[in-house]
Amino acid sequence: MAGFDDLASERSKAQFDVEEMKVIWAGSRHTLEVSDRISRLVANDPVFRKDTRTMLSRKDLFKNTLRKAAHAWKRIIELRLSEEEAAELRFYVDEPAFMDLHWGMFIPTIKGQGTEEQQQKWLPLAYKMKIIGCYAQTELGHGSNVQGLETTATFDPQTDEFIIHSPTLTSSKWWPGGLGKVSTHAVVYGRLIIDSKDYGVNGFIVQLRSLDDHLPLPGITIGDIGMKFGSGAYNTMDNGVLRFDHVRIPRDQMLMRVSQVTREGKLVQSNVPWQLVYGTMVYVRQKIVSDASCALSRAVCIATRYSAVRRQFGLQSNGIETQVIDYKTQQSRLFPLLASAYAFRFVGEWLKWLYMDVNQRLQASDFSTLPEAHACTAGLKSLTTSATADGIEECRKLCGGHGYLCSSGLPELFAVYIPACTYEGDNIVLLLQVARFLIKTVSQLGSGKEPVGTTVYMGRVEQLMQCHCAVQKAEDWLKPSVILEAFEARSMRMSVASAQNLAKFDNQEEGFLELSADLVQAAVAHCQLIVVSKFIEKLQQDIPGKGVKGQLEALCNIYALFILHKHLGDFLSTGCITPKQASLANAQLRSLYSQVRPNAIALVDAFNYTDHYLSSVLGRYDGNVYPKLYEEAWKDPLNDSVVPDGYQEYIQPILKQQLRNARL
Ligand SMILES: CCCCCCCCCCCCCCCCCCCCCCCC(=O)SCCNC(=O)CCNC(=O)[C@H](O)C(C)(C)COP(=O)(O)OP(=O)(O)OC[C@H]1O[C@@H](n2cnc3c(N)ncnc32)[C@H](O)[C@@H]1OP(=O)(O)O
Ligand SMILES: Cc1cc2nc3c(=O)[nH]c(=O)nc-3n(C[C@H](O)[C@H](O)[C@H](O)COP(=O)(O)OP(=O)(O)OC[C@H]3O[C@@H](n4cnc5c(N)ncnc54)[C@H](O)[C@@H]3O)c2cc1C
């Protein structure tokens, strides 16, 4: 039967060891074992079913999420799951919920911005979930501009308390996940006011609801901000609104690692940079990059399997039509996304290492790598989430009409994913942060301050401003050194050009605003270079397993040459390559697609996703698409009755009217 046979035959064509590729994708044999075990545990538990999610009303959907979260927590305790296993469980439950903000932002904020004493007081409560917290930063009037927040925290020396207040409508906290209906506590960001002087934004731990009856405490108004894009999707989350009317908290609930307020009302700065108040965002942006590879690989897995099952046109001698995956146009849209999923996986792994390294340094009072960590997390968060959001939509189109059905799994995946381009920093705003970092780096060239980390290549500015690409034949594009040099030269030249244009302005801030569209492009070029170079570095590691390294090399080259093709204008206009070399790159790309084609199904099998996680009829492991699509349609509540509700009120009268008209 079509589907079963197609995918079995595809799997038999694979030219590499899929089991070893699973280890590479997971990161280690241990991680693969944990992820495999927990994914099956979730898939086999009826409480974690997902199939009715898009049909539930908001209230039922939300209650169902509460049920799942409570059940997940129960299982974590019963099975004594480690933190790693619990995180895998959350991943495979696959539903945004208040727990994400509690574990992903509230706890990390206390760890990163609280003093030892504050951590000792609050963390045990939070770890045992005796309190549930959220991250209340964004307001109705300001999200990107954190320094523009209006909530005030005024120190009252009489009572040794802070008074938390929302002075305007636009100062209402707006968006925090978990706030609307669940959280008992929040880290609230507000302006620290002492003796009428404004000391800027800081974090404060504020209790919001009673631990007895869950009612908001006096002076606090809270609710949910309403339905969001798509059915199911992010509507499992209670993004909330919060207002304070002179709510008092003890002084020791200001997070005081960065600066302290004494009993006398004096502000004392510690030796850590004030930017640490933004530390949780660096942590979460790093997480979001890893998540991008998961979301993109999921969509790509669905689209690849379905493209091997789906046949249209091109009747062959054996009477069978062509698998759509064999069309070159399909390959040229699908395989770069497959390559991107792998590329984002590896850059995510590297970013996790970078974050851990920065954290260790911070503990030892070494703050030197913080600007680089901020630029990398901001830039890569922006690059990978934008590409993933676009990629999921492309996968939907790659699946034709059936991709638009909720049962394909793609509409909900798209709807739940796209806010990643906005939350934790709007993607353009974040690229502008990278641009500032690049301009600063360029301006310091030749000053004796050597560029570090991902900007080391800028130290070779003279060479990179003049070099000529050495490619003479298509295969030359397979050399990592050739690719790296082209990407480095493009990024260097775009940053230098931006810096030179900026220098023409008397007022640098005005110039930055005027040139911001170009600056964003320079930032994108730098971030793409990071992705390419981290993929190449990955390939320099020991990679066991028959054929595994060869497949990864092909994917790395596809990613790089696809980006080159997509941004050809940059590469040509900066003179990094010639039009002839561009056309050789394109020829090489086509040849790489042919190389990947027989391995495509095995390359998505290596993600090791269960059918439960994919929740897609089109992406089923067994390829049994058509019978299941047919079966799925009959489950729609609209098919509960043969004649629909409303027939007598609305259809019959029309039909009767038409009959009468016809008789006239
Ligand atoms: C169901 C089962 C449950 C079982 C559970 C078991 C456990 C399971 C575990 C689960 C774990 C889950 C983890 C998941 C992860 C969490 C998922 C989260 C989902 C998403 C939620 C989204 C949340 C949010 O959106 S929070 C709000 C985010 N807001 C923003 O991002 C605002 C964006 N704006 C900014 O960041 C800034 O204001 C910025 C950068 C735009 C500021 O611009 P500006 O130029 O005005 O800067 P200044 O403020 O003046 O700063 C100048 C100076 O500072 C430097 N800088 C800026 N930011 C940073 C930074 N972050 N770090 C370091 N340095 C920074 C900047 O570069 C400047 O430096 P100079 O040297 O002066 O140039
Ligand atoms: C699903 C979801 C969950 C969220 N969860 C939380 C949470 O838990 N806690 C929390 O505190 N917040 C949360 N947020 C808020 C989120 O962090 C902000 O929405 C985000 O930081 C973007 O800020 P904004 O809404 O102010 O966008 P704006 O800054 O108003 O963006 C609007 C437009 O203006 C552009 N723009 C803004 N500034 C500039 C500039 N300087 N230069 C050029 N263009 C600019 C942007 O590119 C964008 O196109 C969440 C948001 C969403 C969607």
UniProtKB/TrEMBL annotation:
Chain ranges of the Acyl-coenzyme A oxidase N-terminal domain: 17-132
Location of this chain's protein in the cell: Peroxisome
Top-level taxonomic group: Eukaryota
Domain Acyl-CoA oxidase C-terminal, chain residue ranges per copy: 480-656
Residues forming coiled coils: none
Keywords: FAD, Fatty acid metabolism, Flavoprotein, Lipid metabolism, Oxidoreductase, Peroxisome
UniProt protein name: Acyl-coenzyme A oxidase
Species whose genome carries this gene: Carya illinoinensis
Lineage: Eukaryota, Viridiplantae, Streptophyta, Embryophyta, Tracheophyta
